[in-house]
Amino acid sequence: MTCLWVPILAGCQTESKPVTKTASAKISRPGGVERQEKTTATDGADMASLDVLISKGEASFLKGDFQAAEQHYRTAALMDASRADVLFALAQTKWQLGDTDHAIKLIADIPADDAHWGFAARGQMADWLMQTSQTQKAVVVYRELIEARPDFTPLRHRLVSALNSIGFRAAAAKVLMPLVKEKQASEDELRTLLNLSRPADFAQRQPEPFDETSATVDSMRLTLTRFDRSELRDAADWQQQVIDAAPDNPEAAAWMLWLRAQLMQWDQWTLAMQTLPSGTQDYAMFWLAAGDYEISKDRHESAVRCYLESMRRDDTVVETHQRLTAALLVLGQPDVAQAFDERRFAQTDTIEAGKAIGKQQPDDRVAGEAIVRDMIRFGRMDQAAAWYRVLASRHPESRNEVIESRLRVPLDEPEYEQAKFCGLSAENFALPEWIDEDRKIAVDSFGPPTLLGPKTSDENASPRISRPIAATMVEVAAERGIHFQYRNHSTHRTKFMRIHESLVGGVAAFDFDRDGRIDLYFNQGAGIPPSKPGILPNQLYRNLGSVFELVTDLAATDDRGYSLGVTAGDLNQDGWPDLVVANLGTNRVFINQGDGTFRDEASHNQNRQITETFTTSIGIADVTGDSLPDLVSVRYVTDPKIFQEVEVGPDGVALRFPGPLQFTPAVDSVAVCKPTGERTIVDLGQTKSNGIAMVGEAAQPGLGLMISDFDGKPGAEFFVANDQRPNQLWKFVSPENDGIPVSGESPFTDIAVAMGTALNLHGRATACMGIAWADFDNVNGDDLMVTNWYNEWINAYRSGPVAGFRDDPIRFGLDVLSEKRVGFGIQPIDFDNDGWNDLIIGNGHIEDLSHTGTAFAMPTQLLANQNGHFVDAHPTESATVDATHNDYWSTLHHGRCVITCDFNQDGRMDAVISDLNGPAAVIENQTVTPNHFLQIELVGRSVERDAVATIIQVTSGPTKLRHATATGDGYEGKNETVTHFGLGSASDRVDVTVTWPNGQADEYKQLSVDHRWLITEGDPEAWQLR
C-alpha cells in the first residue's frame, strides 16, 4: 500500500505483523491517551477481501474523499483489528475528518514494538499531540522515541521545537546544544539560544502572534511573556498553575522560586525550597533566586557566587548581569561591575544582530560578523562556529583565517570562565551557608529575610494611629484664573515623540513679590529644536488672593527656550527669591529685583541657541559647606541624535522609540558660588564623547533631583534619580570634611551604593524619575520615594536607624499600587493633617502604545498613608462643584511635574500638576478634617538664607516628628519653601528644635498649632506669620 503518512521518523512500511493482546510496548502512552480494546485477527479466509478494502480506502484517501476512505478502513478494522497498517490508515482518515481525539486514540493502539509501524505511529502521535496543544504529552513521547533511537536527529529537532513552544527554554537548550556541536542546528534554532529567559521567538525578526487566552497550564510560554512585560505578579500567578499541573518539573520549580524572590514572597519561597523537585539546582533561575535571597540577608559575597553559578548554567539572562553589577558595586569592585554591565549591553546588541541576519536582509553580513565576534567574546565557541558557517555559506568573501583558527581551538575551563565571568573565579566566593559543596540544600536553615526593624522600634516612633478621612481635592485652575497648557512642539504631538517631547515642563511655587502669597511659574516648550525657538512663553502667575493674574511680561520672565526644569531660591542672598529655568540648551537665570521684576543674569550673553544638552531638574542650595548657595544641574543626555524623528514602519507603528540608553549621557554639574558672587561650573566627572551610560561613570541620564541632609551629618548632599541607570548620591569632600582628600577633578563623590539608594530591592537599576522626601513611617527620619517605569515598583528607600536606606516598597504597600503605572512627579502631602505623610503622584506613559494594550493616559494617584501602609484615597471633588464640572479624579491624565504649596493659606497643602496633553491642574485641598497642623519657614544667617538641609523636630507630648528641609523637589519643579507638619488630634502647644546645616541648634518652646511660624537662625523668638 502507499504510505499515507510519510514520516521523517521511519521509512514507509508495506507489511505488518498481526497485533495481539499480548504485545507489550516499550514506550508508554502519554497520560490521557487510552488504548482501544481490539480483537485478535482472523485466519486468512478473508485476506483477499481485506486487501481490497484497504486498496479502496487508499484510493479514496488520495482523491480526498475521506468519508469513503473512513468507511473502507473502518470495515477493514472490523474484519481484522490486529492489522497495524489498517489502524494507522484509519487514524489518518479520522484526522483528516477533524476527529482528532479518535485519531490519536487509534494510533495509540499500535504497539510501540511493532517492527514496521510502532516507531512511525509514535512519531505521528507526538506530532498530532503537538498540533492539538497537548505539547507536554508530545514531549514525553519524543523523549521516549529519542531514548529508543538516539541517532535519529529529526526527533531532537522536534523535541527542541516542542519544548520551546511551551516555554521550557532551558530544557530545549540542553537538547539543542549537542545539535549545535554536531553542526545540525538551523539558523532559527541558533536564534533561540540568544536569550533563554524570554519566549523562543524573542530574537526572531517577526515574533509569532501569541494568543494568551489559548495558553494551557502545561506551558510556561505565558509566564515568560508576562515576565518580559514585567508583569511579575501575573507571571507568578500563572506559573503557580503550571507548578500545580507539573509539580515534579525542575525547570518550572526554578522559575517559580525566582518569581517568588522577585515579589519578595519569602514565606512562599521558603515553602517552595522545602519541596523542590530533583534537579532544580541544575537550572540558572534557581541560582538567581538563591542570589536574591542572599541579597535580602545582606550577604553580597555569597550572592555573587550564586549569580556566577547562574551564569555558569545560562549566561544569557539579563537580570543575572544586573544583579552581579549591583552586588559587585556594593563589594567595592566597580571595574568588574562595569565589565558585567558592558557584557549585558553587548548581549542586547547580539539579539538585535540575530534579528538582522537572514537571506536578502540588508545587514546580513554585518550582523553575522558581529554575532560571531560576540559569541567568541562570550565564550560560546560552538555557537560562534555555527553562526560562522551560516555567514560563510551566504558570504564566502567574509571568511577570515584569524577567526577560523580561533574557532578551531576549544576553550579550556579557565578560559571559558574568564570569558563568561569577566575574569572572576566563582570559587573565590563562598556558597551560601545553606548550600554545601555538593549543591545540597539544608532546608531547615531558612528564615525570613533581614529587613529594617519594626515601625515602632525607634524611640521617636509616633504612637498615633491614622484614621481614614475622606479626601476632597478639587481641580480649580480655571476658576482661579490659571489657563496654561504645555506644548511639546510648535503644533503639539501626541504620537512618535522624540525623547525630549514627552518630558513636559516643570512648575515652581514661590512668593516672588513677598506679599505672603504663593505665585506660580510654568515652563513651556512650543518649539522645534534645534532649529526653531518656542512660539509661546513660559508663564508667571501672581497670586492676588482669590485669583491669579498673568504677569509674565510685567515681571520680565519671558523665556522662549525649550524649557524643562525650574527652581527658585535666593541666589544672591538679598532676601528676594530668584528664578532659574532649565532648558534644552542654554539655561536662564532671572535675578529678582525686588520691585516685581526680574533681570536676566545672562542678558549680555546672546548665545542662547538650542543645543543637544539639556537640563531636566535644577536646585539652589549650599552643597559645598561654605554657606553660599550653589546651583545643581541634573542633565539627561548630550547627543544630536535626539532631534532625529522617530522612524515609523509601513504599518504606522514606530520601529523603535527613543530611550535614554540610545544616546550619549550628560554629566551633571554644580555651579559653585564664590564670595564674589561669581559661579564656577564643576562637572561631576568626565563627559563622555559618545556611547551609552555605563555603571561607575559620572555621566548618566538624570531626571530627578533632591537636595537635603541624607547622611545625618551637617551639610547637604544631593540625590539624582537616573533613567535606567544606578541613581547617584553626591557628597562634597575636602580635607576639612572627614579628612577625605579631593579626588580627581571633582570635589564630589558618589555615595549612593554605600547609602543603599543606587538600585532597587532586586539590585537592579530602574527608570527612576520623580522623588518624594519625607518621613513616611514615622521612624528613623526621612525616606525617599522614587517613581519608576511601567511595572517597575516605586522605590521606597526607607531610612535606617543609624544611616543608609533600604528599598522596601512591599512594606509600604507600594508594589501593587505602582504596577501598571508610569510615574513621574511624586510629592508628600498630608492631605488630612493626621501626621502621616500621604503621596500624590502624576502618572502617564511617554508614548501612545494603546495598540499594545498599554494605557497612554493614567490616573493621578492620591495615596493615603495609614500607619505606614498606603492605600488608594479615592479622592473626590467638592460637593459644591457644579454637576457639569468634569471630575479630575474620575478622568485619566498624562501627569508629569507635581509640586505642593498652600496657595490659599488655609493650612491644608495643595498641589499643582503639569500635563503632557492637557491643561495644568491646580488641586485645591478642601478635605474636611479635625486635625491640626504647624508650618515653618526658615531664614539662615550664617548659613545660606534658604537653609536647605536643616533638620526640624517637632515634639508634641510623646510624639516626635522630624524632617530635613530640601530643594530640587523631585521632578523638574519647586515646592513652596515651607515645612508642613500634620499633627493629628494634638491641639496643645508644641516644642520645636531646629538644627541648622552647620550643626548649630535653636530651640523654641510652646508654639501654638494651626499657625505658620518664621524662624531665623540665631533668633531666640519665632515669629507667627499667620
Query: How many structural units, i.e. domains?
Result: 4
On the 0 to 100 scale, the average pLDDT is 87
CATH H level, superfamily name of the largest domain: YVTN repeat-like/Quinoprotein amine dehydrogenase
CATH uppermost class of the largest domain: Mainly Beta
Structural class: alpha+beta
The N- to C-terminal Cα distance equals 103 Å
How many DSSP-defined strands? 37
Largest beta sheet: strand ordering: 17-16-15-14-32
Uncertain stretches of 5 or more adjacent residues: 1-42, 448-463, 603-609, 737-744, 879-885
* Shape, per Cα inertia axes: elongated
Helix content: 25-40%
- Percentage of residues in strands: 15-25%
CATH topology term of the largest domain: Methylamine Dehydrogenase, Chain H
- Total helical segments: 25
Instruction: Please give the largest β-sheet.
Output: 5 strands, antiparallel
Cα-based radius of gyration, to the nearest Å:
34 Å
State the CATH architecture of the largest domain. Answer: 7 Propeller
Region (Disordered): 20-41
InterPro entries: Crtac1 (IPR027039), FG-GAP (IPR013517), Integrin_alpha_N (IPR028994), TPR-like_helical_dom_sf (IPR011990), UnbV_ASPIC (IPR011519)
Keywords: Signal
Organism: Rubripirellula reticaptiva
